[in-house]
Every structure is written in structure tokens, then in C-alpha cells.
Amino acid sequence: MATNPESTTLQTEVPVRLLAELQSLVDAGWFHSVDELILDALRRFLDSHREDLMRGLIREDVEWGLRGTD
Amino acid sequence: MGSPWDGLSQLDVVCDAGPLIHLAEIELLELLSDFKTVFVPVQVWEEAERHRPEALSSAVRLQKVFIEISFDSRFQTLARTLLLDVGEQAALSLMANQPASVLLTDDAAARLAAKALGYRSHGTIGILLRSIRRGLRSQAEISSVLRSLPFRSTLHIRQSFLEAILRELESGPGEG
Question: Which residue among A57, A61, A65 places its CB closest to the CB of B133?
Fold first, then answer.
């Protein structure tokens, strides 16, 4: 249960092997906990996709601008 | 590149505040004159009036439109999820009345919403590059404008993206 009022709890199923890999990163000292690792991974996912999104939109502008028909 | 003059475009556009403001900053609002009609929802008009009033007082004919923001539940869900502001919501609502138009916006979320609703959308970069194809500006002029964007405009675009556009532009826009 989330204790921070600005957080919420997300429950999901993950493959045992994936969780073991995550745990090994925690055990190696890269993260304090699996929770922290998952939060970090989610933030990175959102950041990278935001950039992909921007790149895609600019690509569409370039195509329309230079090679569009209207 | 298209012929130097293909005649007046038959394309109608619905304009959000971003392109109005950004084109005014780089003194290229007149590029909007190449569209058949430039519709500006009153909510967008008011936003531009607050941030860049000269964008509305240029020689370009802008058609101010009174439009109610859509109450459609799918639309409202999109607006809430993507945190669209009033102007963006108004522009997208207007698009519902004229889906063949192109929405001009520099907001990524508004463009995502447009895509989800089946509308075409483009931003200031597209308008600038289109002006070369339409024979309104030379490639050299637009290259120079693109290079100056970080200093002359509040349009935020990653330097690496800008460089990629310039490379493509300068390697021959009609070759792709």
C-alpha cells in the first residue's frame, strides 16, 4: 500500500525469471530495492518514448513540408 | 521541390496558438496566407492575444471562430489524459466540424490527440519547410531561419533534431 499521498500502488504479474534478473541488480548494489528499480525503468521508458514521439512528429512535418501534396 | 508557383492552396487549416506565436516571433506569419482559410478558435485567439498580440494584427487574414468545446466522452477522456489546454481542446473541437482541414499545432499532446481522433496535424517546422515546396521561400532562407530558431523563437526543438532537418534540407529536399 502506498504511504505517500501522491503515489499509488500498482499490482501486476511479472515472470519469475524477470523478477530474478531485477533482484540480481538490486543484490549487486545498483538499486536499493526492486521498487526503486521499476520506478527508474518506468521513467526511462517514458523519457525515451517522449523523444521517439517528438522525433516522429518532426519526421511527419519534414515529409509534409518537403514532399507533401497540399 | 514543387513548381515555383502552384497557385493558392486549397487547404484549410485550424490554427492553435503555438504556430501563430512562433511564426510571429520569426516574422513569417505571412506563410499562413498560403492556406485557403486559417480558422482560429476564439479560445486560441485569446491565448495569442495574451502572449503575442502582434500575431493577430498582421496582414494575414485569420478567421476567428466561436466554438464550444466538445462534450463527447471520448474527446473529454483524451483531453484529460493528455492534459490539453482550452485552446488545444477548442482547436480539436473545431476539427470535428471540418475533418479535411489540417490542425496546426506545436504541442505534442495535441498532435497525439489529433491522431487518435483521425485528424491530420502539423507544426511550425512543417509550415516552414512547406514554404520551400510551395515556392514562397528559398531553401537558403529557410535553412537560415531554422538555424536561428533557438535564438529568435520560443519553439523548443532539440538541437540534434534541428541539425537532422537541416542536413536533410541541404542534401536536397526533393530527393527523398
Answer: A65
Tell me whether residue B100 is in a domain.
yes
End-to-end Cα spacing for chain A? 54
Structure ipTM: 0.90
C-alpha dihedral, A37 to A39 to A42 to A46, nearest 10°:
-130
Model pLDDT for residues B35-92, shown as the tens digit of each residue: 999 999 999 999 999 999 999 988 889 999 999 999 998 898 888 888 899 999 999 9
Candidates A57, A60, A67; nearest CB to B176: A67
Q: Determine the distance in angstroms separating the CA of B160 from the nearest CA of chain A, rounded to an integer.
A: 10
Task: Specify if B116 maps to a domain.
Answer: yes
B133 touches chain A (CB under 8 A): yes
* pLDDT score of A14: 87
Strands B12-15, B102-104: pairing is parallel
Q: Which domain holds residue B64?
A: 12-124
Contact flag A65-B130 (C-beta cutoff 8 Å)? yes
Q: To 10 degrees, what angle do helices B42-51 and B86-97 make?
A: 140
Q: Residue B109 corresponds to which cell in the numbers above?
A: 499532446
Inter-CA distances, B92 with B11, B49, B67, Å: 17, 19, 10
- As a whole number of angstroms, the distance between CA B153 and CA B165 comes to 17
